[in-house]
Design goal:
By secondary structure, the chain is of the alpha+beta class. 25% of the residues lie in helices and 33% in strands. It contains two helices and six strands. A hairpin with a 2-residue loop joins strand 2 and strand 3 (49-61). The longest helix has 20 residues, at 97-116. The model has no long low-confidence stretch (mean pLDDT 90).
Length: 118
């Protein structure tokens, strides 16, 4: 599920500030990057299953291996994890309302923090 109208689409943020912001809100970068792309995940474990809020971006200046890259963000995604296949984001997925509202709130907080550091 795409979470649109968050202000993330085409937002440009310096990598180290982005990582600090996302990690403060419980997102994990871990090994989910290469020299051109980053992916931040926030995991939700509920009785309905495991869900991931995913924020992705790509470098438009510098590279992700250096801490001063400029990242262009993409539309955030909410997906459900299916073992052993992975995360599905499709239109046919059902997401608990509390996961959707928490995800929206986290994205709003992240956007406010990114706007404050510009």
């Amino acid at each position: 599920m795409k979470i649109e109208n968050t202000g993330f689409e085409n937002e440009r943020v310096e990598l180290s500030r982005l990582t600090d912001t996302m990690e403060d809100l419980g997102f994990d970068l871990a090994g989910q990057w290469d020299y051109e792309r980053v992916t931040y995940d926030r995991k939700f474990e509920t009785k309905e299953g495991i869900f991931y809020l995913r924020v992705q971006g790509f470098a438009v200046e510098g590279d992700v291996g250096g801490s001063h890259a400029i990242i262009n963000l993409m539309t955030p995604l909410l997906g459900k994890h299916y073992y052993p296949h992975g995360v599905e984001y499709g239109e046919g997925e059902t997401f608990p309302s509390n996961i959707v509202s928490t995800s929206t709130s986290l994205l709003k907080q992240a956007k406010e923090r990114m706007d404050a550091i510009k």
